[in-house]
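Hi L.,

You mentioned the student needs an example of a multi-chain input paired with its predicted structure. This one should do, with 730 residues in total across all chains.
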Amino acid sequence: MSEKQTPDSVIRLEAVGLTKRYEDGVLALDHISFSVAAGQIYAMLGGNGAGKTTTINLFLNLIEPTEGEARINGIVTHKEPLKAKKNVAFVSENVMLYGNFTALQNLEFFSRIGGKTAYTRDDFRDILLRVGLPATVHHKRLKEYSKGMRQKCGIAIAIAKSAPAILLDEPTAGLDPKAGYDFLRLLETLRNEGKAILMSTHDIFRAKEVADVVAIMDSGRIIMQQPATALVGQDLENLYMHHMAGRTAALRQEQASC
Amino acid sequence: MLKILIEKEIRDIIGSTKFVITFAVCAVLVLLSFYSGAANYTNARAQYEAAQRENLLRYEGTTDWESVDNMRALLPPEPLAALVAGVSNDIGGTIEVEARGELQAEGSKYAQEPVLASFRLLDLEFLFQVILSLFAIMLGYDAISGEKERGTLRLTFANAVSRATFIMGKLLGSLAALILPLLGAIALGCIILVLFQMPLSGQDWGRLVLIIFTGLLYCSVFLALAVMVSALTHRSSSSFLMLLVIWVAAVMIVPRASVLLAGRAVEVPTMDEIGSQKTAYSAQLWQEDRKKITGFTSTKTGDIQAIMDELNEFMSSIADERDRKMKEFAGRLNEERSNRLRQRQALALAFARLSPAASLSLAMSTLAGTSLGTENNFLSSASAYQQTFADFVEEKNGGIAGGRMVRVKISSGEEEPSATPVNLQEIPAFTYAPIPLSAAFTAAVVDMGLLVLLTMVFFAVAWIGFMRYDLR
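Structure written out for the whole complex:
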């Protein structure tokens, strides 16, 4: 499954000493560094507040780093945000999209602001079919869509941008098993097309199923990072649980001392 | 990029159920206000014409110019007053004009039909001030916060979109989505005016265009405000609540409070106080004149006609003198009062202009010719007419029956039954000169400027707010 994963692959996404301290003093991200090459899926695992979403927000330049850099295709996001963002597509958790627009209209709008103006209606239809939205729903307004269908539309938007890197923020949250399964297959085909994919998730089972590299994050740090091939299913689950348990114990201790 | 964003904004707004419903209601109300305006005008016109006929009819068959001692100056209904009522229903529409004496407008529409006063009319001003400003808020309250809630803000900014372009697209797009459909409804309303054959002159159309422009400016103030608040909040529900509070304060409270405040700040004598002062002075003058009349002795002897003529002349001269003094006294009192009133009004307006609703009212009514100045304008038209009428009466009678005193006339029996009715068409007709468009525009431009300024300020704050907005 990882024949594309060669050491000399082009690095598409890279975090170098990435740090974010909010104005209220909270250290959300503490000098993390990693890279995602073309044709690679990098999964960030971790509980709430671990820093996964902060990392993605830094890549999208929605916030500025306190220290370090996030780079997309070698472009530093906070220095040249518009240029950097041309090279990345994004799928967020539970995005509602424009409820008054049909799937086609949503796709068309986001493609246009993504700089893809050459698409025809047929191209859009093909993309929607590809992510598993049948032609019968293409003209339905998004507010009539289920969560799973909206997520598919979100992925269609990311695919349409045909950017070399894709960021996914909790993409499988709230999806039913079938939708989750379909989603992972889609992710694999994207990886095989040479996309660099950075995904944040709570879901260790799916992470280990598709990811090439799995990282466990906590309190703004990457506490473990390993190629998925080096992990047996049991290992990862144990590692994660062990870590989470430690964290819960620490939290309890903290509360008790308060 | 900007074009794409504007296009999306328009389609997103116009495609929403919220828009369809509220716009349908607004469109119906716009049409209704044009329709009721046209109907009211037709009505008022008929009433006016009847009153004008009655004005002459009461002298029908009169053989003597002496009994034609008063004419009514009638304020003609203006087609635009039907659309922007302003004060047109509050001020008197009739002035009894005699050759001498003070003029006072009486018989306001609200006095005749009090039910109208308690519910007011559904005119364009009300529509813009209350309904369409709410409509603008409905369109704009979730402009930014709503996109954040739907996650589309993050998704949009995952692309090469700058904040400046985005907020610009928001403002221009929502403005277009507000104004274009409204213009459509208003255009339909204008067709109603044409169908009703409202006698709108070229100038009137010019006024109407300016009135509508002012209304749209006012809507853009509220739209810019709504976008501004949505760019300063993170939840559309809190943005909506804040906007409602601001709306109530601006539209409902500030204009009323300003009148109250100004009333407290500047004391103005009431009309009754002035009236009683005038009565007292008039009684005093009479007292003095009575002595003079009693002391009258004719220099003529024998010829009764000559004595009568001399008496008439004497009476007329003291009446003139009394009139002059009375006029001077009343003039002074009135001037003092109107100075105070002006002062109070200026203060009230200055306070009120904190609210765009007041600016809207003032600009619209000024442009429609139904502003606060209308009554004065009517009075000065009537005053000019009084002069014409007095000259006419004097020419016909060889003198004015001063101070309503009985004019003593001796006629030899022979000429008595000549009795051909006088030609009433000879009486000069009253013409009302409305404030010309250029003057009205000059007066309204301040308020229109204020609306532009407010829009720009809100626009700017929305801009700055969004530059620092948390996009996550």
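You could point out the following to them. The interface with chain B takes residues 53, 57, 60-63, 81-83, 85-86, 88-90, 92-101, 105, 109-110, 112-115, 154, 157, 161, 167 of chain A (CB under 8 Å). The longest strand of chain A covers residues 11-21.

Best wishes,
N.
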